[in-house]
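Section 5: illustrative case.
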C-alpha cells in the first residue's frame, strides 16, 4: 500500500505539472497567433486606406499582407515548439561539457605486454567540484605475480581504488603505473587486453555465454574454453541447454546469480591478463564457487598474473601474499597476509563474541 500511495502521489504530481506546462504553452501560442492575426489585420486595413487614397495599389496591399504573414509564421512555430528548443539546447550543452571533460584520445605508441608490476605514487582522488578526497596519499607497489587482498569498512574507498587501478578514472594527483608506465599513456584498446576486471555489479550482455566471455572477440573459441576452465565454470556451462551458445538474456537474467558471477570471472581472466582486479568476487558464490575462485587465483599467480582482490570474506583471501587495510581513504596497514590478519582478528573478536562495545 505504501508503494502504491507513493506511486500515486508522484503520478499526480507529474500530471499536474504536465497540465500546467501545457496550459502555459497553449497560452503563449494563443498570444502569438493573436499578435500575428492582429498585425495582418492592421496591415490589411492600412493597405485598404492607402488604396482608397490612391497612395498604393490593391496588389501592394495584398502582397504586404502575404509577406507579413510569411515573416511571422516561423516565429509562431518557434514559440509553439519552444519546449523542444529548450530540450535540444540542454542536451547540446550537456554533450559539449562531457566532451570537454574527456579530451579526444591521442595517438599513443603500443607498449609491449606488461609483466604486471603495479605502482601507486602519492595518489589522491576526489570527485570534481568537491573539496573532500575519497582516497588520500595512496602509495604502494606490487611485484609481477603477487596477490594483494584489500579489506576495510564500507566507504573506505576500496572500489574507487579498483577503478583507479584499471584506469576507469584518473587520479586527482599522483600516478598509477603498470610496468613503470602511467596507465593513461597506454592506448585504451591495448590496455584492456592486459587487464581483467570483475566489478561488484556484474553487467552481462544479451548474447551467448561465449560472446560474453570473449568480450565479443572473433575466432576465440579455444581462449573462451581456457578462460572458463580457469574460472572453474566450464562444466556448468556445458550443462546449459545450448552450452556456450546459450542465450543468457538481458543482464544475464536467464541464469542464476552465482553462474552470472562465475561467467564474469571467466570474462575477466580471458586472454590470461597481466593484471587481474576482483571487486567482491565471491559475493554470490557457494562453497564450490569459493574453491574454484581460490584455484583460479593460484593458477594465475603461477602464470605470472598480478592479482588484487577486494573481499569481506576471509576464505577469498587465502591465496593472497599481502593484505592492505583501507580506512577513511588512507592505508592504515599493509603487509604479509598473516601479519595483517593477526592485527585484524583481535579487533574483530569482541564484537564477534558479543563482548562490550
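Designed sequence:
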Amino acid at each position: 500500500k505504501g508503494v502504491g500511495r507513493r506511486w500515486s502521489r508522484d503520478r499526480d504530481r507529474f500530471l499536474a505539472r504536465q497540465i500546467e506546462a501545457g496550459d502555459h504553452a497553449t497560452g503563449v501560442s494563443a498570444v502569438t497567433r493573436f499578435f500575428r492575426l492582429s498585425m495582418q489585420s492592421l496591415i490589411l486595413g492600412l493597405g485598404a486606406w492607402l488604396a482608397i487614397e490612391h497612395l498604393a495599389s490593391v496588389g501592394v496591399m495584398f502582397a504586404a499582407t502575404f509577406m507579413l504573414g510569411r515573416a511571422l509564421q516561423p516565429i509562431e512555430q518557434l514559440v509553439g515548439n519552444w519546449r523542444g528548443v529548450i530540450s535540444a539546447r540542454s542536451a547540446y550543452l550537456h554533450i559539449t561539457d562531457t566532451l570537454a571533460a574527456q579530451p579526444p584520445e591521442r595517438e599513443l605508441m603500443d607498449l609491449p605486454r606488461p609483466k604486471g608490476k603495479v605502482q601507486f605514487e602519492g595518489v589522491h582522488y576526489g570527485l570534481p567540484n568537491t573539496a573532500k578526497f575519497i582516497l588520500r596519499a595512496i602509495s604502494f607497489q606490487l611485484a609481477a605475480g603477487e596477490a594483494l587482498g584489500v579489506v576495510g569498512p564500507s566507504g573506505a574507498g576500496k572500489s574507487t581504488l579498483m577503478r583507479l587501478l584499471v584506469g576507469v578514472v584518473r587520479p586527482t594527483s599522483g600516478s598509477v603505473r603498470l610496468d613503470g608506465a602511467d596507465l593513461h599513456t597506454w592506448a585504451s584498446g591495448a590496455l584492456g587486453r592486459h587487464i581483467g576486471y570483475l566489478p561488484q555489479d556484474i553487467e552481462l550482455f544479451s548474447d551467448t555465454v561465449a560472446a560474453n566471455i570473449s568480450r565479443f572477440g572473433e575466432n576465440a573459441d579455444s581462449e573462451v574454453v581456457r578462460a572458463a576452465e580457469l574460472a572453474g565454470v566450464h562444466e556448468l556451462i556445458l550443462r546449459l541447454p545450448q552450452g556456450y551458445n546459450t542465450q543468457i538474456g538481458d543482464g544475464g537474467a536467464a541464469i542464476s546469480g552465482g553462474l552470472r558471477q562465475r561467467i564474469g570471472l571467466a570474462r575477466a581472466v580471458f586472454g590470461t591478463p597481466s593484471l587481474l582486479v576482483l571487486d567482491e568476487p565471491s559475493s554470490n558464490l557457494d562453497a564450490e564457487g569459493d574453491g574454484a575462485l581460490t584455484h583460479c587465483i593460484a593458477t594465475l599467480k603461477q602464470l605470472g598474473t598480478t592479482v588484487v582482490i577486494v573481499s569481506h570474506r576471509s576464505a577469498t583471501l587465502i591465496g593472497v601474499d599481502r593484505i592492505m587495510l583501507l580506512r577513511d581513504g588512507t592505508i592504515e596497514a599493509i603487509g604479509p597476509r598473516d601479519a595483517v590478519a593477526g592485527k585484524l582478528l583481535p579487533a574483530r573478536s569482541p564484537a564477534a563474541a558479543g563482548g562490550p562495545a
